[in-house]
Specification:
364 residues, Leucine-rich repeat, LRR (right-handed beta-alpha superhelix), nine-stranded mixed beta sheet, 18% helix, globular
Length: 364
């Protein structure tokens, strides 16, 4: 069998050296093939036990790699361990639908990786999968149900973290050392936050914890670790709900906090920057009325607007139709750059936090 594998590898190398013109395929005890992406760039493919395929090897220097949805009529459902580890060239990875699992260390220590586009089909990101990807700027977990420990550890260019509700447990060190993160939103559905899950987020200013969370380990949020000691951040504000684990955690460690449901029942809560249509009788279609930051059009600016913005951003990134109407799009683009993304969500949460504590913020 080893002799056969060596012969296959020799054939593969020959094909690659002449420009990678097709597909080499063998069927012995297991199946092996490769997918040509461009001259000198190829993906090695192996068969999974269930008959689907896994990416098991990458050779090349491409800056953008697109993982195909299938090969020879068979779905590609996983990326094997270490496939892209320490790759120096790759800047962007686009994952096609059908991908379900990214395994251990698959993209660890890729120093120039900036963008990953996860499909809705992705369910598992194993431990250390994107560890130390220092330029990775955005992560949209969409429908991911499991994130392994240290999966996004030391991704120091991340500025925003959104934990979807389908991810019921935020495991230890999942986002440890993501030092540029300023805002973290944990969606309804998450139940457990393990120890050190988001340790050493030095620039964290705002975190939202839903009612669904029932267990939060000590030192998991809002702490730094130095010289053997946990140090509490004095800069972070917790957005929590009454009678919740989030509220108890904030009180236990003396964090600043906002009780969201109490704020929303305050009839005196008002927000500036209401944009009204211009008075112009010659215009038959009026400019939509909207409140900057009120992405869901409920006349209140809060964490649900940030979640709405993130859902829109995810839809755009994955090629789906917009979830927002015309007035909602205008309200969501709070920084006026013509894009709706995590930067807008972060600014909405910062605005909400300031307004709730008695300030009268304005948009930048």
């Amino acid at each position: 069998m080893n002799i056969i594998k060596r012969i296959v590898n020799i054939v593969l190398s020959a094909a690659i050296s002449i420009g990678c013109v097709g597909t080499v395929y063998r069927n012995y005890e297991s199946e092996y093939s490769f997918i040509c992406l461009a001259a000198g760039d190829y993906l090695g493919v192996e068969a999974n036990d269930d008959g689907t395929l896994a990416i098991s090897k990458y050779t090349g220097t491409a800056e953008t790699v697109v993982i195909p949805a299938a090969h020879n009529g068979r779905k590609i459902t996983s990326i094997k361990r270490d496939v892209f580890k320490k790759n120096q060239s790759i800047k962007k990875v686009v994952f096609s639908e059908n991908l379900e699992r990214i395994e251990y260390n698959a993209f660890a220590s890729c120093p120039n990786l900036e963008i990953v586009e996860f499909p809705d089909s992705l369910e598992v990101v194993e431990k250390y999968a994107f560890d130390r990807c220092s330029k990775l700027s955005t992560v949209n977990l969409n429908n991911v149900k499991e994130v392994g420990n240290c999966a996004f550890q030391l991704c120091t260019s991340l500025t925003f973290i959104h934990v979807p509700g389908c991810l019921t447990t935020l495991v230890d060190h999942a986002f440890h050392g993501c030092e540029s993160v300023s805002t973290m939103v944990i969606a309804e559905g998450v139940k457990t936050i393990e120890e050190d899950a988001a340790l050493n987020l030095y620039n964290l200013k705002n975190i939202t914890i839903p009612k669904s969370v029932t267990s939060i380990a000590d030192n998991s949020l809002g702490f730094f670790y130095s010289s053997g000691n946990y140090i509490k951040s004095d800069d972070v504000v917790f957005n929590v709900y009454s009678n919740s684990a989030g509220l108890e955690y904030a009180k236990k460690f003396g964090f600043n906090y906002i009780v969201i449901d109490s704020l929303l029942t305050n009839p005196n809560a008002t927000y500036p920057n209401i944009v009204r249509p211009p008075v112009n009788t010659s215009v038959t279609t009026a400019t939509p009325v909207y409140i900057i930051g009120d992405a869901n059009n409920d006349a209140v600016i809060d964490s649900s607007d940030a979640s709405k913005v993130l859902a829109e951003y995810s839809a755009i990134q994955t090629g789906k139709s917009s979830l927002l109407g015309n007035s909602q799009e205008k309200a969501a683009d709070v920084n006026g750059d013509g894009l709706i993304n995590s930067s807008d969500a972060s600014e909405i949460l910062q605005y909400y936090s300031k307004a709730a504590t008695g300030y009268h913020p304005t948009w930048k």
